[in-house]
Design a protein that fits this description.
Distance between the termini: 39 Å
Strand content: 25-35%
Order of helices and strands: EHEHHEEHHEEEHE
Structural class: alpha+beta
Largest sheet: 8 strands, antiparallel
Number of domains: 1
Number of helices: 6
Length: 164
Amino acid sequence: MRAFRSVSKELHNSLKLVYAELENKTKENIEGWQCIAITVFDHWLTREEFEQYFTNRSLDQQIDIDLRWKSFYSFLAKDVTCYQYKYRSVSRLIFKEPRNSSLFVRRLSRSSVAGNLKLVIPEYNAVIMQDYDDTCWLYFKCRQPIEPLLNDIRKLGMYTLERI
């Protein structure tokens, strides 16, 4: 079963107004927004650390990392209203809502094999983009409204790193 379904036309139109910067895939204009990395690491990794944590990761390290990501994904599924956004064509933006929280968590957990997800979080006027290297990118216009979200993320054992 698919993890997402199309949103209602009213919600779609409302989200398009809030996220006008996403209107066109070739002109996706959130790069000017502020950005923070959400990760399981407390600092930016050096090349050697990357080799240690990605190429030579122990089973215990993998279990710990998987548990922290699952906790974060469960938080997104249960405590935050998120919608997937994607493009049907270059200029056709669509929004989808999770069918249920367990499917949503499973889909988020498959990012390394199924591609990254892009989510909007309307209550914080933010966008989350999954990446393949144990990092998610949180984009936002204003820092103050997202501070409660960042605090909740840190309480889950995740780290928020400023973009270099």
